[in-house]
Fold each of these.
Amino acid sequence: MDNKKVVVGMSGGVDSSVAAYLLKKQGYDVIGVTMKTWRGEGTLEQKQLLEDARKVSEALGIVHYTADFCEQFEKEVIGDFLEEYQNGRTPNPCVVCNRKIKWQALMDWAKKMGANQIATGHYAKIVQLPNGRYAVKRAKTAKKDQTYALCGLTQEQLAHTIMPLGDYEKEEIRQIAKEAEIPVADKPESMEICFVPDDDYAGFIEGRTGKEQKPGNFVTLGGKVLGQHKGIIHYTVGQRKGLNLAMGKPVFVVEIRPQTQEVVIGDNEDVFAKTLTCDHVNLMGLETLEEAHAMTAKIRYHHPGAPCIVERQSDGTALCRFAEPQRAITPGQSVVFYENDVVMGSGRILKVWREEIPDKACGSDR
C-alpha cells in the first residue's frame, strides 16, 4: 500500500473540498470519491452533490470517482433507523453511518485502489494516547466540533484516517476555499438527515415499512390515561409540541413504552434523570472499563457535557451516573465519554433510571 495515497470522501461541500486541497498541498496523491448511499427520495439533491464534487475535483486537478454504497447504507443505516424508531427509541443514524459506511465501506474501497489511508472533512483531531490507543479529540472550534458523531470509530479505522480540519475555524476554511478558487467556497451547510430531507421521520418510516402506525394511550407516570396518541414513532423524550393534550400547563414526553404502545407524559421535572445504562459500548481512548472512571458525558450532539461516573456491568453494558440530573436522556441516542477533550468511549443509551438504583439492579458484579 502507498502511504502517500489517500482517498478523500467528498460530499460536494466546502469542508471535504478543502480537506482534499490541503492534503494535495502536503504532497499526498489524492483520490476523491463521492459515496452514493441512497436512492429514491432526494435524488435531485444527490445529483447536485455529485456534480459539485466533480467540479471541485476538476478544479483541484485530482481524479474523482463515485462509489455505490446504497446496499450497505440501506441495510446498516436505514434498517437500524427503522427498527429503532419502531422500538420506541430515537436513533442517531450519523453515528452508525460514520462507522459502517463513511469509514468501513470507504476503507475497503480505498484498499482496492491501493490506498492505505482515508481522509474526511470532519472538525476533529486524531491523537494517539500514551497507552497506545487512538482517539478523536475536540476540534479547535467548539461550535463545529464533530467528535460526538465519530464516537463509534474503531482503532483500526482511526489508525488509517487523516482529519486535516481539526486545527481550523470554519471561517478559515471558507477563506482558504475562496483563495484557492474552490467552486463551493460559499455553499451553505446541510443539517438534516440526508435520507429524510423534509424532516418527516414518521412519514418516511410509514412509507418504508408499509405499516400504518397504531394509536396508543398517553398516560401519566402513575398509569392514568390522558388521551390517545397517533403512534409512538411521532414522539421522543422531552418533546412538548404536537402532543395536543389540554392539560392547562406545559407537559412533556417522559418515556416511550413500545411493549404497551404507551407514551408517558409528565411535568418538566419528570424529564430529568441522573442514571442511564448503555449497550454497544465502544472503548476508544480507554483500554478497559472494569474500574469506575470519572469522566464528562454528552447525551446528544448539542449537550454541553456533564460530570459522571462510568463503569462496565457484568452483562456487557455500562452504567453512567451523573453528578446532577440531566434533561431528556433519550434511549437510542449516543452517550459519549470524554477526558480532557478526548473521546474515551461511548455507548447507545438503553435505559434511563429516574430513581436511585441499587448496584445489583443494573447488572453490576461488584
Note: Residues 360-366 have pLDDT under 50 and may be disordered.
Amino acid sequence: MPTPHYKAYTSHNFRTIPQLQSFSDAHMREIKTTSYVAPFKTNNYVIDELIDWSNIPDDPIYTLTFPRRELLKPDLYDKVAAAVDKDLPKEEIGIVAKAVQRKLNPDPSGQSANIPVRAGHKLPGVQHKYKETVLFFPKAGQTCHAYCTFCFRWPQFSGLSQAKFEADASAPVVEYIRNHPHVTDLLITGGDPMIMSAKVLAGYVEPFIDGPDTLHTIRIGSKSLAYWPYRYTTDPDADDILRLFERVVKSGRNLAFMAHFNHPVELSTRAVEDAIRRILSTGAQIRTQSPVLQHINDKSELWSAMWRRQVDLGLVPYYMFVERDTGAKHFYALPLIRCYEIFREAYGRVSGLCRTVRGPTMSATPGKVQILGTTELNGEKLFVLTFIQGRDSEWVEKPFFAKFDPDATWLNELRPAFGQNRFFYEMELDEILRGRLSTID
C-alpha cells in the first residue's frame, strides 16, 4: 500500500471529494450553507477508511465530520440559507453567520472565567479551573485534522476572536506553573497539538521538560489517533514525534495521551493499531474519552464494544462525558437519565479492566459533575450527583441531590431537592466567578 499523504477538505474544496459526486445539488447546498456557521474540515483518511458511503446520511463518522442542516435549528438555518440564496457577498453572509454563531453559546461552562491573571493581566492561551491542572493552548495548534460537528471548542475555529484561546510561547506558562507549585498536571490542548510539526511541537513542549519539578504529568489532548493515525507511522516526522514523547518520559514525567474516540469504527483500522503500538512503545500512556451523542454512540453496546477494544489495544478508558450546552447540542444531546442508562448498561457488560471509565459526567461551570444514579427519598424521585472535579476541591466526592427531571440534558436544567433554593456549592461559586474568592492560589 502506498504511503498515504494527508489531504484536507474544507468548505472551499469539498465539492472535489469523489464520494460526493453523486450528491444532489440540494444536499451540496446544505453542506455549504451549514458550513458558514459550523466549522468544516475533514481529510482523506476519514473519507476513505472510516465513512461507510453506503449508509449516507446516517453513517456516524459522516455525521461526526460533515455539516448538515440539522446541526442548526430550523429558524437559524433559514437565516443563513436566505443570505446564501440571495447570492450576497461572502462578507455579508459572514455577518449573518456570526450572528447565528453568537446564539449558540460560544463560551460554554464559563471557559472565559478560567483564564488566570498574572501581573494584573490575563495570561493568554491558558486556563486554570482546577487547582492541580493547567490547560495550555499553543497558537500553532489551533486547528485539527478534522472537525467534530459536536465539538464544544468550535468557536476556536470559527473566527469568533473573542472566544479564541491561544499562546505564542511556553515561557510565561512555565513561569506561571513555577509560581503555583500545587500545579502537577499540564494539559496541552487546542485545537489539536498534534497538527503541529515535530519541530514546532518540541518548541512548545521542551520548556516544560526542563521546567519545575512540581510538574509531574504532561497531557496531550488529541483526536489525531482517530482522524489521522499516520501522524505516528508514516508522516515524514513521525519518528521525531515519538522521540519527543520518549524525552518527556525519560525526564521522569508521566506523558498521558488523551485520545478522543467516539465510535468503535475509529478503532477498527490497521493504521490506528500501528499508531497506538508506536505511541505506547515510548512509555506514554493513552487514556480515552468521548461524550455520549445522539445519532453517533447512543447505544450501550457501542460503548461496551469500544471500551473492550480500547483495553485490548492497551488503552485506558477514562471518561464518558455529557454533550456540552453549546453549538449543535439540540441535535446531539440526550436526557441525563438516558446518558446514565447507557453508561450503566455498558458498564455492566465489561470486565473490571474496562471499569476505569467514569461517567456520565457534565464538565459544567462549577466542575465535573457525575451522575451516580437515581433514588427515591420521602416519596421524591431524585438524581444522585457528585463532583469528580470542582472549582473548589472541597466539593469533590460530596454526594448531592437534584429533583428528577426526565427531560433535563444539563446541570443548569436541574433543581435542588428537598425544597432547597440552591445547590450547596452555588453561593461559593458566585464568589469565585466574581473574582472575590480564589481556590487556585
Note: The radius of gyration is 22 Å.
Amino acid sequence: MWKKILCMVWGMLFLCGCESVELEERSFPLAVGVDLQEDIQNEEQQLIVSFDFPDLAQISEKGKTTDTPMGMSLEGPDLYHVEKSYENNTNRLLDYNHMKAIVLGENVMNDSSQLREILLAWEQQENAARNISLFLGKGSAAEILSLTQETEGSMGKYLEEMLDSQKDFRQNKIVAIGNLMNQWHNQDELLLIPVLTEQGNRPTITGYGAVLNFEYKGILSVEESMEIFLCQNLLEKFTYEGTENDVVEISELQVTSSVEDTKEGPFVTVHISGKGRRKTGRTSSAAQQYQLERRIEKRLTAQLQATAEKLRQDYGIDITNSYITLGGQNRGLYLKYKGLPDQYNKQVRQAFQVKVDLLNW
C-alpha cells in the first residue's frame, strides 16, 4: 500500500517538473499578424508574421520572461518556415493555446492562394483553436500589433477586451478564424470581418471586410455592416440615426425572413420589429410619438432597401445572406441554385417591413 502511494506521489512530482520545463521552453503568443511582402530579388512572396507575446508570469509564476521580447516579426515563404525561424532564433517552441486574436493584412485577403495555404497550415496545428477572433489590418497587420504603447500591454488581450465590450451583438456572433475556414470549404455565405485602423495610437474598428464565397470583396462601412447584421438577426440592439436629429435605440429585436421564387428571380421578405427608446429629445404627445414611429419605420425601410440594392450591384452581396437558408426555407430554390451562390446573390431581391414601438415619450 505504502509503495503504491509513494509511486503516485513520485509520479505527480515528475509531471509537475515536466510542465515547468515545458513552459520555460515555450512561447505563448496572444495575437499573430500576417502580411504579404514581395521578394523582388527572388521573384516570390514572403509572409511577414508578427507575434504579440504576454509576460509569461501571467501564465506561470515559474516562467522566465527576461529573455522573451513582447513582440517580434519574422519572414518566410510559409508559416512552417516562419515557426522554424522563431525556434532557431529563440530556442523556444510556439504554443498557440492562449491565442486571443489573428490579424490578417489586406494583401493576404486579396491573395486567395496564399490565404488557403495559411488556413491549411492553421488547420494542421495541433494546439491552434478555430474560435480565435479574426480581424483585418487596414494596410498592415504588423502596424496594428505594434500599437502597444497606448494599449497598456498585450495587443491580443486588448483586442479580446474590445470585443467583450461590444454589447450590440448577440452572443457567439464574433467572427473567428474557424468561420473563414468554413468559407474556404463551403463557400456559401457572407462573412464580415472587423477592420482595424490606427487612431490615436490605438486600433479602432472602422469598417468590416466582406468575404463572399471565399472572395474578398473589400471594406464596407460600419453603418452598412450594422444594417447587414440587423437583417440577419445578429444584433441585440440597433441604433437608428435619422436626418432630423432622430436618434433611437431599437432593442428587443425580432427579425424573420422568407424567400420565394418569382418570375424576376428569388425574392426575400424581411420583417423587423423592436422597441425604441429616444436617445435625443422627447415627444410631448401621443400624436407626435405616432408620427415619429411612422417616420422611423418609413426611413429605415428605405435605408435598408437602398443599402441592399447598392451592395448587390457593387459587390454581388445579398445582405440577408439567404442562400445558406434555402435548404430549409425553399427546397425548389435550393435545388435550382445548388452550387451557384454567385448567380443567386446577383439575382436575389429584397423587401423590408419595419415596425418600431417607442417606449418613452
Note: The longest strand covers residues 247-262.
Amino acid sequence: MDLSEFFALVLMCALALCGLAAWILSRRQRRAYEKLARTSTFHCLRCDSVYAAPQGSETGVCPKCGYKNPRLRF
C-alpha cells in the first residue's frame, strides 16, 4: 500500500464517520421534534403567554395566571 492509497482510505473512513454522525444527529433531532409535536399548544388570552400541555386536552390552564384557554389550531 503506497501513500496515496493510504490517504484515500483515511479520507473514505473520515467521510463515513461524518455521514454516520450526521445520521445519528438527525435521528435525535427528529425524536425531539416528534415529542414536541405530541403536545398541544395554548396561548393565554389574559396574560399573552404561550405554553404547552399533554396531547388530548382541549383546554389548558395557564401556568402564569390560571386562566383556562382553548387549544390553538394550526
Note: The mean pLDDT is 88.
